[in-house]
Each structure stands twice: as C-alpha cells, then as structure tokens.
C-alpha cells in the first residue's frame, strides 16, 4: 500500500477503499450555489462556437423532419433525435431518441444480456476479481509512466500511484507560463473504446490541483474539448476549485474563465456554460461543464438516473474532439462513467463486443491505470446500461 500526495499532505489511497466505505451515499451533497449573478448568452460571440453550430445544425435537420442521419453531421451512426435539441442549451432537456428498427432489435438483444448478467451477482463478483488479477502492477506501471515520475512533475500528481502511461498521456502543446519546468505534462490520459470517431473519445484526468489549474484549462483549449464531466465535488482534498464559483470570473495563469450561465438540473447535477479566453492569443473557447457531486468516492449512486441523463445529453455532442471526464483520481467513477457511455453508443452501432465489459474495462485500463476501481462500480455499469436500454425501448414504444 502506498502513501499519497494531495496538496503535499497524506490522503487515503483511491485504489484501496476503506472497509467501512458505504455501498451508496445519501444524495445530500448538492452543487454549490453561485455567489454571483450569471447573465448573458452562453454562446461566445468571439469564437469557440464551432461545435455548438454543428450540434445546432443537427438539431435543425431533426426538427425539419430531414432524412439526414447523424453520420451527415459527424455522428457516425448514432440514433437521430426525434425533435430539435441543442446539447449546449443548459435549460433544455435531451429529447427521447428515435431508434431505427434495427436499433430497437439491437437494444432488445443487449437488454436481455445485461438484465440477465446484472442479476448474477456472484458471477459478476468473480468476473471483477479476475479483472483485478489482470491489472497493471505497481513496478510495471512505474516503467510505463516515466514522464509522470520525473522530479519536475511529481507535485502535479494528486496521487503518487495514479499516473498516466507515457504512450497515452495528454501532452500540452505549449508550456504554461507559471510552470517552473515549462514542460508538457499533465496527469491526464486519452481513453477511447474504438479506433475511429464513431464513439465518443475521452480525456480521463485527476481533479485539478491549484498548481495545475492553468495546465487544465490549457488542455481543454488545446484539445477543443466541448464538455467537462465532473463526477465529484469541490473540496481541498479530492478536487480543488478550478472554476470561479465565487464571482463568476477568474484568471488562471494566461486563461480567463467566465461562467456565462448556471443552472441546477432536476436530476441532481449542475450545468454551466463556461467561456475560456487565452490572454496571449485572444481566442475564446466555450465549454459545457457538468458537475455531478452525489457519486460517492469508491461507491455508487443510489440510482442510475443522473448518470444516464448526462449520457443522453452528451450523445448529441459532435465527436471531433474528446470529452474531459474526471473525479478525484480520474479512474474509479470516471472509468465507470466512460464504460457506461461508450457501451451504450457501441450497442446502438451494432457492436456486440460491447456486451463484454471485461474486455471494455481491460481496454480502458490499457490506456489509464485502475479504470473502474471497485466491484460496486463494476456492477453499477451493468445496472446503468440495462436501465438505459429499457428507457430507450420504452421511449420508442417497446
């Protein structure tokens, strides 16, 4: 068991949950109320709206009854929305998806599998234990994460045994002005379920530290990430406050960050329209921030509803650029969400290999260590996928 570095203090290992950790937690931790008034349109007038325009183009096609598919707008085969929907409109709920006849059959077949498996608790427990036996061990991980262990980068890691692999780590293109070392390192990894853009790609990262705020926003802007999915709450141990929640606007090195709109969703997460401007270039990047604070560390939510509502919204996001997802270490809750999200998308594309969550998690773990951290999270993936398939069929009249 290894010690951990969290803001230069010791913390409980994210890879070794305490025996007393609850299976679930009460949904009492709410998105923090803003200490400022947010006004104005969420869309930047100075750039960064390209993905918004693509999403709105898809919405217009759907609303007009056009026979165009998502493939015509970089969706590569996803189901077509039944009504116009802009995923960046934080005040609008995602509409039901209009499945094709083939997708209805795919969902029925997949549902039969996931419902059956989700009831086989002993078998799933054994399955997860086999997965744990295949995980990358500490000595091997050290050989695969040489950049993360460099002396110049050690203080940029929230946990000393959750390090990105050299071959899948996100590289910053230009060094942040506040970095003494001036290198390209951030504790973040590219994670993808397929080799093409048919399924959403992700950047899985740790909860930012104060010393890495500028690096975080640099990563978001350089990779043109349309969405940040935050699966934890802001606090000084798990995730420092990288958003200007006190007054709605803040400066992080060379980046000015402004919260343009802020709303609480009925599904217990917070949606924020955020605008990030680079002071050096003047470029503005708009990003949707989704905060879901009620997913307990090492545990699972009492319901799959909120997680699935996030997935429903993100289904409408164009695929060109990766989605940022993080919790505290960027492996447990983050790994579970990515597994759920990518599995649903692959099922709708007719990829029956998505039935095999062992292989899905193994592929994620080959890109970032420790993805899907606990047995509870693994079983939650089965539940959430089954629940979403039932919801998709129900909304299609089946």
Please characterize this protein's 3D structure.
- GO terms for molecular function: protein tyrosine phosphatase activity.
- The chain has 398 residues and is α/β, with parallel strands linked by helices.
- The chain has a single domain (101-174, 183-396), classed as Protein tyrosine phosphatase superfamily (Protein-Tyrosine Phosphatase, Chain A, Alpha-Beta Complex), CATH 3.90.190.10.
- It has 9 helices and 11 strands.
- The protein has helices at 50-63, 101-118, 121-133, 138-144, 213-222, 305-314, 333-348, 357-365, 375-395, and strands spanning 80-81, 97-98, 169-171, 185-191, 202-205, 227-230, 249-252, 255-264, 270-278, 284-291, 323-326.
- The strands form 2 sheets. It has a 9-stranded mixed sheet with strand order 3-4-5-11-6-10-9-8-7, sandwiched between helices. A two-stranded antiparallel sheet has the order 1-2.
- A hairpin with a 2-residue loop joins strand 7 and strand 8 (255-264).
- Helix 2 runs antiparallel to helix 9 and helix 7 packs parallel to helix 9.
- The longest helix has 21 residues, at 375-395.
- The chain is globular and about 55 Å long.
- The N and C termini lie far apart (49 Å).
- Residues 1-13, 15-29, 36-48, 57-83 and 176-181 have low confidence and may be disordered.
Summarize the structure in short:
This protein has 398 residues and is an alpha/beta fold.
Helix proportion: 25-40%
CATH architecture: Alpha-Beta Complex
Shape: globular
Cα end-to-end separation: 49 Å
CATH class: Alpha Beta
| CATH fold title | Protein-Tyrosine Phosphatase, Chain A
Our count of domains comes out at 1
SSE-based structural type: alpha/beta
The helix tally amounts to 9
Major sheet description: 9 strands, mixed
Write out the strand line-up for the largest beta sheet, numbering strands in chain order: 3-4-5-11-6-10-9-8-7
Poorly predicted runs of 5 or more residues = 1-13, 15-29, 36-48, 57-83, 176-181
Percentage beta strand: 5-15%
- Topology pattern, helix = H, strand = E: HEEHHHEEEHEEEEEHEHHH
Going by CATH, the homologous superfamily would be Protein tyrosine phosphatase superfamily
Mean of pLDDT: 82
- Radius of gyration (Å): 20 Å
């Amino acid at each position: 068991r290894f010690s951990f570095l969290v803001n230069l203090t010791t913390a409980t290992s994210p890879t070794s949950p305490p025996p007393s950790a609850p299976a679930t937690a009460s949904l009492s931790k709410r998105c923090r109320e803003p200490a400022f008034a947010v006004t104005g349109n969420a869309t930047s007038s100075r750039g960064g709206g390209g993905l918004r325009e693509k999403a709105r183009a898809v919405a217009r096609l759907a609303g007009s009854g056009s026979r165009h598919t998502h493939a015509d707008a970089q969706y590569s085969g996803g189901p077509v929305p039944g009504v116009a929907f802009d995923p960046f409109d934080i005040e609008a709920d995602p509409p039901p998806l209009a499945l094709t006849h083939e997708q209805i059959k795919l969902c029925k077949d997949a549902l039969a599998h996931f419902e059956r498996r989700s009831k086989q608790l002993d078998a799933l427990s054994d399955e997860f234990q086999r997965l744990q036996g295949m995980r990358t061990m500490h000595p091997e991980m050290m050989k695969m994460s040489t950049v993360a262990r460099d002396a110049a980068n050690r203080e940029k890691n929230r946990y000393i045994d959750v390090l990105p692999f050299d071959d899948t780590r996100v590289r910053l293109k230009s060094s942040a002005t506040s970095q003494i070392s001036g290198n390209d390192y951030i504790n973040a990894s590219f994670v993808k379920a397929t080799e093409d853009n048919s399924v959403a790609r992700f950047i899985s990262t740790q909860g930012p530290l104060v010393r890495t705020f500028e690096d975080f926003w640099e990563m978001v802007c350089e990779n043109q990430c349309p969405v940040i999915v935050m699966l934890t709450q802001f606090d000084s141990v798990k995730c420092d406050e990288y958003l200007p929640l006190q007054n709605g606007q803040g400066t992080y090195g060379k980046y000015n960050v402004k919260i343009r709109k802020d709303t609480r969703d009925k599904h217990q997460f917070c949606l924020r329209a955020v605008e990030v401007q680079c002071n050096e270039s003047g470029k503005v990047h708009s990003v949707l921030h989704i905060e879901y604070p009620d997913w307990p560390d090492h545990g699972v939510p009492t319901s799959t509803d909120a997680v699935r509502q996030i997935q429903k919204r993100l289904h409408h996001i164009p695929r060109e650029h990766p989605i940022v997802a993080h919790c505290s270490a960027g492996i447990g809750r983050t790994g579970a969400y990515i597994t759920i999200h990518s599995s649903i998308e692959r099922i709708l594309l007719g990829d029956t290999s998505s039935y095999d969550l062992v292989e899905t998690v193994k592929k994620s773990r080959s890109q970032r260590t420790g993805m899907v951290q606990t047995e509870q999270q693994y079983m939650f993936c089965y539940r959430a996928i089954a629940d979403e398939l039932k919801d998709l069929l129900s909304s299609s009249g089946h």
